[in-house]
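Field reference: sequence -> structure
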Amino acid sequence: MRNCGRVQLKLTDEVSLTGAGKLGSAHLWRRRREFVRLWWRPNHARGHLWLDESPPDDETDPSLPPIRVSEDISRFRYTNPTGHPSGLRISRIVSESFRLGLPNVRWFFLCDDDTIVNVENLIGVLNKYDPSEMVYIGTPSESHSANTYFSHSMAFGGGGIAISYPLAEALSVIQDDCLERYPKLYGSDDRLHACISELGVPLSRELGFHQWDIRGNAHGLLAAHPVAPFVSIHHVEAVDPIYPGLSSLNGLKLFARAMHVEPWSFLQRSICYDRSRRLTFAVSLGYVIQVYPNIVLPRELERSEQTFVAWNRLSNRNEFDFDTRDAHRLVCKKPILFFLKDVGKDGNATIGLYGRAKVRDDLKRKRCKGESCQFYSLTEGFKEGCGSKENNVAKEVEKIYFTFGETPNYARCSKGAMKTYNMSLSGGTDTGESAGSFMFGLNIPRFLIEEGRVLSPTSDVPVPPAKPRTVFSPHGLSELSGAATVE
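Structure field:
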């Protein structure tokens, strides 16, 4: 039974929304409501989950969107041999939401109940547009096959569709007649797109909306998020747990916590280099720090490592409508991965703890020669302070602390300090320097890797950090050849 529903939401903010979570069956809603709970804001949002029938009374929860039942769609023709008529009902949710007559609504936002939404960034994205105009916002699929079958100009509802109030008003007038002209279409998004096309409204693409038509390990996409505010991901049940060692739901809870702590910077990339050791640090804020044992240029890092397959289970690179690269096959070329373990605020600074992921190739990696073994002596600079004379052997780095915002001006030694590596992203808007768009909406004058010299593990005396070693600046890559030094 397809007991599907859609949500209606309005934020008590300057930007008002009405949104929808994709229809799911009643038994799926019992599980998927935990996904909605991660991002829904009951005290700041107004909305509904739309179903085709009322669930049992014990299924209601005041902390989640209230449930409404969709209108009957049996009068409409549906002739697609492989789809399901529920697509008709789902496509009409915008019109039904408009006819509720909610006051002060500027936007209607539709998404699926297995979608995670960054509400703060959604508001920011919508603020770029004029809600008094007819606007249709979203993104196509990552799958080339899906876009070819449906349309490269269609917003896929799983990743979210934003529709301005005037467009919703126009749809409410023409949609029922429009649907009669498209009985052969497959689902809901293509029907909605067909009617919007008849109104002459094009799709406004936003790269932060993610349909996520993938399966398997989503690492390649998360580690190479485009330079755009993250808004949504879909199909969270179809991919492996985001963070190793955690269940899918617990991983999503950590994911959502990092998203709420730094919504605008979440998943944005920073690329740093340690020239003396020839290391490359690729940081995806709130997710992972990848440490490459050689210099890897940004042009390669901005491509998604293909750790996943498409929704149709094809793995050919031509199946994806975005840039991908093959995963490293040689153990000595693979990056060492440090995944987020904890995140929090310390004043104006955001501090993330990233722990090293253990993999089967660790023992093989120790036998690597040349530059690929450099990372295993990464803590050598700490020997003078934290390591005793009797135990003066550099150990493998187990943790990385990454600080964003106000960088601490000293480091303190702690137990296990020989197994930590401190990094900081120094930024500010008072320098007058513009770093481009590495951080959406921020001016970041430079990226730093700090190596703080610290005292013994029993000492609590602060010591000024060593001079930062920086090989990469957003203003140029000349430092890679040693031609300049960023101070």
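Note: The mean pLDDT is 74.
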